[in-house]
């Protein structure tokens, strides 16, 4: 028996953020949804799906998820890379959604069933100065969060990625033809960050899990200095301390600190993480299902990481769609070495387009028990929010040279 794919459609919608959504329909009328959002490069993935993979999907058996994954991964000749892997990831999510709906079970049941009752989640707190940051952290605690990522401004700068003077909201991407440019000052950051994070720890006491994201801005020496000065803050993790390309450099950093390290949100395949995993240079792997070939590939990354006592903690910002979040939660519920899920919530307009069955309670998330991934997409609502170009800001050193992301 086969379940034939009869229609493939790609929606690009912008209810506050640009999201690329894949819709696959089968000959028995089942619709599966996948997320294909690659922040700032959305249309490249949409074209990859519309122009190359979509036509090849027509007539294929929707039930053959692994074979379809291998067909597109091995069959492309040009393997890996964010655009390719996001496109394959979207197909993978849509096919898991279809299989769940066809069998009447939530996707986590197809992955082996629940390995935990609920998924610990962390959110973002931001404030330009300490009082604003503490207010933001307190708000998050009042909302029930048990784990919070704390980011602040830096004295001498006007803006730091994701934190704006006097603005409570998080505005990571600016609309327009090119990215906004920000200044960056490593020395000022290194002087300031330990003080502010120590003050946050003192304010919240020992229980709250505190995280901090460096966004690839340091070299290994600077990262070691920062980590050593933060040892007493008891961070749950320090994220993306250095650019992720030259991973051998992290060997020396690991000898300098016991702070857990989290890396991987820009990775697309297991090959991007192989050294980090086999040498255990990280404690948490951050790869998101949407960006690394979907559930089928990320669960292999997590199985590989499990052997090295590394846990999954996927990227889950508001700039990928609720379909990605749901897929991550199904995977997380069914995976024993899954630690925590990033969750920032969404603009209300996002819920007009994506209705999701996941629920947040008391600092934990659960994907819900609807068949498939549990996300309905309202295509009329999606059409009301057309795509507009938007990009993450870039940063320059004080002398005007480009800074690493
Ligand atoms: C995170 C990320 C974000 C990214 C953004 C890129 O940990 O959530 O680092 O802050 O910059 O999601 O698309
Ligand atoms: Mg990050």
UniProtKB/TrEMBL annotation:
Residues of the Mandelate racemase/muconate lactonizing enzyme C-terminal domain: 130-260
Keyword Transmembrane: no
Pfam family for this entry, one: MR_MLE_C
InterPro entries named among the record's database cross-references: D-mannonate_dehydratase-like, DgoD-like, Enolase-like_C_sf, Enolase-like_N, Enolase_C-like, Mandel_Rmase/mucon_lact_enz_CS, Mandelate_racemase_C, Mandelate_racemase_N_dom
PROSITE patterns for this protein: MR_MLE_1 (PS00908)
Keyword Lyase among UniProt keywords: yes
GO molecular function: mannonate dehydratase activity
EC number: 4.2.1.8
Keywords carried by this UniProt record: Lyase
Protein name: D-mannonate dehydratase ManD
Encoding gene per record: manD
């Amino acid at each position: 028996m086969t379940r034939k794919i009869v229609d493939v459609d790609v929606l690009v919608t912008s209810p506050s953020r640009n999201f690329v959504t894949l819709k696959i329909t089968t000959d028995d009328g089942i619709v599966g949804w996948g997320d294909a959002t690659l922040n700032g490069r959305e249309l490249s993935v949409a074209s990859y799906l519309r122009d190359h993979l979509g036509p090849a999907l027509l007539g294929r058996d929707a039930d053959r998820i692994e074979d379809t994954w291998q067909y597109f991964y091995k069959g492309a000749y040009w393997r890996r890379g964010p655009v390719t892997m996001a496109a394959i990831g979207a197909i993978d999510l849509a096919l898991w959604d279809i299989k769940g709906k066809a069998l009447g079970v939530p996707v986590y049941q197809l992955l082996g069933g629940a390995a935990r009752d609920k998924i610990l989640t962390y959110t973002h707190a931001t404030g330009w100065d300490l009082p604003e940051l503490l207010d933001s952290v307190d708000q998050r605690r009042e909302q029930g969060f048990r784990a919070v990522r704390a980011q602040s401004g830096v004295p001498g700068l006007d803006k730091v990625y994701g934190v704006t003077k006097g603005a409570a909201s998080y505005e990571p991407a600016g609309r327009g033809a090119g990215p906004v440019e920000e200044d960056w000052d490593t020395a000022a950051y290194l002087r300031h960050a330990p003080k502010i994070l120590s003050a946050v720890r003192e304010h919240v006491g020992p229980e709250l899990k505190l995280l901090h994201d460096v966004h690839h801005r340091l070299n290994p020496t600077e990262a070691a200095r920062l980590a050593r000065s933060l040892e007493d803050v008891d961070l749950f993790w320090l994220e993306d301390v250095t650019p992720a390309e030259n991973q051998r450099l992290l060997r020396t950093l690991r000898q300098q600190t016991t702070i857990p390290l989290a890396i991987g949100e820009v990775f697309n395949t297991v090959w991007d993480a192989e050294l980090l995993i086999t040498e255990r240079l990280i404690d948490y792997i951050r790869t998101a299902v949407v960006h690394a070939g979907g559930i089928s590939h990320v669960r292999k990354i997590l199985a590989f990481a499990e052997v090295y006592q590394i846990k999954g903690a996927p990227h889950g910002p508001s700039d990928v769609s609720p379909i990605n979040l749901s897929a991550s939660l199904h995977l997380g519920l069914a995976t024993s070495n899954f630690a925590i899920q990033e969750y920032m919530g969404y603009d209300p307009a996002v819920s007009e387009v994506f209705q999701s069955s996941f629920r947040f309670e008391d600092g934990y998330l659960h994907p819900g028990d609807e068949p498939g991934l549990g996300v309905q997409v309202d295509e009329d609502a999606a059409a009301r929010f057309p795509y507009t170009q938007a990009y993450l800001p870039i940063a320059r050193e004080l002398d005007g040279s480009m800074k690493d992301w």
